[in-house]
Amino acid sequence: MDTNLVLSADQLALYEKLYRGYFRWVVAFFRRNSFGREESRDLAQDTFLRVYRGMQTYRSESEIGYIHTVAVNVAFNAKRARKAAKRDQPEVSLEEILIETAPDPGSRQTGQRSKSPEEEAIDREEERLQRLWLAEEIGKLSPKLSSALGLRLDGLKYQEIADLLGISLDAVKSRIRDAGLKLIQRGKRSADGGRTSSRQGGADG
Asked: Contacts from 122-131 at CB under 8 Å and sequence distance 24+?
């Protein structure tokens, strides 16, 4: 417990009520999301530590809704930490996201020749710039789209995302598809803008 945080008697009484009423429910929530028994209890304790720290700003809104929101955030962080700890976990690349959301995923080229070291260096730099662009553009998406796509890029499966966000599997797929299409459209506009600038620069020269 955060001993530096002093609650009023009413706030402390409300916290104790929430803890007694929902602790088992929160443990069950984590169990449903594939956490072990002991880990679920630890995460439930973490959840209520956050609830305790937020009691001074809690305005007695929907109790279950408030606790569920906190628990989802705790589960999200735990899932990310779990994925980061698995060094052999394959990374979900930008290409895979765009391929699975693009209208025509079969259009990519296969069987390309081996590239020279110079070409590979150029590809790596282009990929680095592409990821910087991706991070910036994801930040411009709506919270619904960015959260679903961000979790997918972190390597979570569709069902895991659905469980964490409390939405249906179809909703997850729809949000990721919509996010991918928006990124594709923005990428095309960015590329078109670059070609236009190049043509104008050539004409000026």
From this structure: 127/94, 130/94, 131/94
